[in-house]
Specification:
Layout (H helix, E strand, L loop, with lengths): L19 E4 L7 E4 L1 H18 L2
Antiparallel strand pairs: 1-2
Length: 55
């Protein structure tokens, strides 16, 4: 039986695309289930945090 993944951010609505395990943007190396839409948003937030820290 295949596990049905639920997007980590689904409670915020706006899910779109495939839900799959993706590397966390926290840098811990863990994976979290996210849809394509929320994964793109998480990457954008992480990039903005890196820029604000001057990395």
């Amino acid at each position: 039986m295949t596990e049905k993944l639920v997007c980590l951010d689904s409670r915020h609505g706006g899910c779109a695309g495939e839900v799959m395990y993706r590397e966390s943007t926290s840098g811990t190396g863990t994976t979290v289930p996210r849809c394509d839409q929320h994964a793109a948003m998480a990457r954008a937030r992480a990039e903005k945090r890196r820029q604000n820290r001057g990395e």
